[in-house]
Amino acid sequence: MNTIVLRVALTIAVVGAAAAAAAAPALTDVSLSEAASTASTLETRLSKAGENVVIKTTFYGDGDLLVAWSDREVLLLCRKGAYLRAPGKFDVASWSEADRQSIVNLAMASVYSGVQMQQSAAGDRQPFADDGSEYRFKAEGEWAYGIERYDVSTQRRANGVLWVQSIRTGAVENAEPSAQYEGTVSDEDRAARRAELPPTGTRSELLIGTAPRQARMDPGMSMKDWVPVVGAASASLAEARALHGCQ
Predict the structure, then answer these.
(1) Which residues does 203 contact at the CB level (< 8 Å), separation at least 6?
(2) Which end of the chain is less crowded, N or C, counting CB atoms within 10 A of the terminal residue's CB?
(3) Which residues are bridge partners to 73 per DSSP?
(4) pLDDT tens per residue, range 29-57
């Protein structure tokens, strides 16, 4: 009787393992940096300590790009001329040139911030299921005095978007600094680096649009609400691009 029970249990275990293996999707590693370098859009979503931030960048074939937050936008024309818009929120025209430039600098630094956050959590090359299902795994990333732990999810979405999410689940602090850390090791430095760590539960998402980039924005688009960082205002996008020597 016991032999029969054991054989049945073994059969069930083997069948279950085979079913699990058959159900596991085929995976392909994707370089986030390579995908981002040719993306039509990059969207970063960050949620921590009750604060939610969404930053979306749209790239155009003629070299223009548009960076949008919830309350402001930065338009960069062929990497030469920068314009700001914050309708109904800020009086951008009253800002100094230095203040406008600081917002542009922040926008440029934000473009690839989502890519960098996901790389820090789980590296540049991450697995995606070929069948479009959501794939989950655990990962660790270094901080100055230890490791941070993450739950990571990836998915190839039907609209051509690569989606990556990482949720910080905790951190381990070691007696010695990480091998790659080049800072000055001290109790004060350790406390400062610890204070920089995001709270447990912090969630970041990256959406990489892999569809072809639009060739350009409408040349006839009104620039009425757009304020240049430097120089004179323009009536239309075509006029603004010509002003900055864009092809």
Answers:
(1) 45, 46, 47, 48, 165, 166, 167, 168
(2) N
(3) 68, 85
(4) 999 999 999 999 999 999 998 889 999 99
Residues 6+ apart with CB under 8 A from 198: 48, 168
pLDDT over threshold 60, residue 22? no
Distance CA 146, CA 69 (A): 33
231 pLDDT band (50/70/90 cuts)? confident
CA distance 58 to 68: 9
Q: How far apart are the first and last CA of the chain?
A: 84
Amino acid at 116: Q
CA pair distance 191, 72, nearest whole angstrom: 35
- What six digits make up the tokens of 14? 């083997």
Q: Mean pLDDT across the stretch 203-223?
A: 97
Mean pLDDT score of the chain: 90
Within a 10 A sphere around the Cβ of 118, how many other Cβ atoms?
A: 27
* 3-class secondary structure per residue, the chain: CHHHHHHHHHHHHHHHHHHHHHHCCCEEEEEHHHHHHCCCEEEEEEEECCEEEEEEEEEECCCCEEEECCCCEEEEECCCEEEEECCCCCCHHHCCHHHHHHHHHHHHHHCCHHHHHHHHHHCCEEEEECCCCCEEEEEEEEECCEEEEEEEEEEECCCCEEEEEEEEEEEEECCCCCCCCCCCCCHHHHHHHHHHCCCCCCEEEEEEECCCCECCCCCCCECCCCEECCCCCCCEHHHHHHHCCCC
In the block, residue with structure tokens 């820090």: 120
